Amino acid sequence: MDPILAAKVWHYWLSFALVGGAVLTTLMLLVGYLVKVTAQKYPKQ
């Protein structure tokens, strides 16, 4: 077996941070877009 493939994977936890950041960024972009669009469509009086 190749030693690289047999190595203990210790950096799997990075995937949680990367996926969490990507999901959070996507949600923030979506919310920001909706806030900007609805603010122009329904302005404060």
What are the main properties of this structure?
45 residues, mainly alpha, 73% helix
Structure in words:
The chain is an all-alpha fold and 45 residues long. Helices cover 73% and strands 0% of the residues. The protein has 2 helices and no strands. The chain has helices spanning 3-6, 13-41.
In sequence order, what are the helices and strands, one letter per element? HH
Q: Calculate the terminal CA-CA distance, rounded to whole Å.
A: 70 Å
What class, by secondary structure content?
Answer: mainly alpha
The major beta sheet can be summarized as:
none
Low-confidence stretches: none
Helix run count: 2
Secondary structure: number of strands: 0
Beta fraction: under 5%
Helical residue percent?
over 70%
Mean pLDDT: 84
Radius of gyration from the CA trace?
21 Å
Which outline best applies?
Answer: rod-shaped
Short characterization:
By secondary structure, the chain is mostly helical. The chain contains two helices and no strands.
Q: Which secondary structure elements does this structure contain, and how are they paired or packed?
A:
Elements: H1 3-6, H2 13-41
